[in-house]
Amino acid sequence: TDIGSQKDRVVSEEEWLQKWEMGNTGFHKEQGHPLLQKYLDVLLNGRSGLRIFFPLCGKAVEMKWLADMGHSVVGVEISEQALKDFFAEHSLPYCEEPVPEIPGAKKLQSTSGNISLYCCSIYDLSSSIVGKFDGVWDRGALVAVNPCDRQRYVSLMITLMEKNSSYLLVTVSYDPNKHKGPPFYVPESEIKSLFG
């Protein structure tokens, strides 16, 4: 599996922030992702009141959808604008507070308390700050992290998961020599070696 020119590609936090500022967010799905609807039962596994994590959440509409079903949603995103847009677009009141353990980080929490979104680098999070999760919806995170950071990302995700949590992962399949990413191409063999 040749990941071609992608293995050394690095997208900086500034570039991601710029995408949000410029509205260059083709990865955002206004109607939510059809695969989450299709595999929701796999994620929930007959359980209710779960804690569900959205890594690199952007302003994913599924966060409100799952919160409305009675789940507790936690997301992390580097772009404060994306998080504020999420609350504004759903007319959700929220409060903002600093995260003492992470200099410069903020937590934006719905006043109902069931949606907590952290504005910081995902690598600043730990289970001591956000706790552990029953489910993860990784719709565009693994394919967005720089290829050189994948192991670090997956190691962190594993520490955030409860024993019998469900992890739904969406990747994209294409010829990595024809597109520089993101989204990056993550072959199935690599997913297996990363997550074991």
From TrEMBL:
<dbReference type="GO" id="GO:0032259">
    <property type="term" value="P:methylation"/>
</dbReference>
<dbReference type="InterPro" id="IPR008854">
    <property type="entry name" value="TPMT"/>
</dbReference>
<feature type="binding site">
    <location>
        <position position="77"/>
    </location>
    <ligand>
        <name>S-adenosyl-L-methionine</name>
    </ligand>
</feature>
<feature type="binding site">
    <location>
        <position position="139"/>
    </location>
    <ligand>
        <name>S-adenosyl-L-methionine</name>
    </ligand>
</feature>
<dbReference type="GO" id="GO:0005737">
    <property type="term" value="C:cytoplasm"/>
</dbReference>
<dbReference type="InterPro" id="IPR025835">
    <property type="entry name" value="Thiopurine_S-MeTrfase"/>
</dbReference>
<feature type="binding site">
    <location>
        <begin position="16"/>
        <end position="27"/>
    </location>
    <ligand>
        <name>S-adenosyl-L-methionine</name>
    </ligand>
</feature>
<dbReference type="Pfam" id="PF05724">
    <property type="entry name" value="TPMT"/>
</dbReference>
<keyword id="KW-0963">Cytoplasm</keyword>
<feature type="binding site">
    <location>
        <position position="56"/>
    </location>
    <ligand>
        <name>S-adenosyl-L-methionine</name>
    </ligand>
</feature>
<keyword id="KW-0808">Transferase</keyword>
<comment type="similarity">
    <text>Belongs to the class I-like SAM-binding methyltransferase superfamily. TPMT family.</text>
</comment>
<keyword id="KW-0949">S-adenosyl-L-methionine</keyword>
<keyword id="KW-0489">Methyltransferase</keyword>
<feature type="binding site">
    <location>
        <begin position="121"/>
        <end position="122"/>
    </location>
    <ligand>
        <name>S-adenosyl-L-methionine</name>
    </ligand>
</feature>
<protein>
    <recommendedName>
        <fullName>thiopurine S-methyltransferase</fullName>
        <ecNumber>2.1.1.67</ecNumber>
    </recommendedName>
</protein>
<dbReference type="GO" id="GO:0008119">
    <property type="term" value="F:thiopurine S-methyltransferase activity"/>
</dbReference>
<dbReference type="InterPro" id="IPR029063">
    <property type="entry name" value="SAM-dependent_MTases_sf"/>
</dbReference>
